Amino acid sequence: MLSLASKKSRLVNTWKMTEALVNGQSYTTSTTVTVFDIKKDDTYTNGTETGTWAFSSDKTSVTFTPNGGVIPAYTSKILKLKSNALWLQQTITVFTFSTTIETHYSSN
Question: Are residues 15 and 103 in contact, defined by beta-carbon separation less than 8 angstroms?
């Protein structure tokens, strides 16, 4: 179903992680609780990490830039974006080894 709400209005929310997959395998435990607060002013809080966020020009991915310069900016592909569901995918490559992390969130 096509949403009339803008992508930004759907992305801005307080999200609770419901599942994490690393290379397709579940990495979620019953004690895993991550709250991802994406704000209208283009800032975010993810656990103890804070920073700014921006859509790619085609709005198929979002780049998160943590404050402080210690953690580099990272881009996540948007797999699903609804008012109550957000699925992000990030691939991390070190030398020739790649890891794909997929995180699923639901709104509170």
Answer: no
Task: Report whether 36 contacts 105 (CB < 8 A).
Answer: yes
Q: Does residue 45 form part of some domain?
A: yes
> In this structure, is the dihedral angle defined by the CA atoms of residues 91, 13, 20 and 69, taken in order, positive or negative?
positive
In this prediction the pTM is 0.88
CATH number at residue 90: 2.40.128.10
User: How far apart are alpha carbons 57 and 107 in whole angstroms?
Assistant: 25
pLDDT tens by residue, 42-70: 999 998 899 999 999 999 999 999 999 88
Which residue(s) pair with 87 in the sheet? 80, 104
Dist CA 99 CA 45 (whole Å): 24
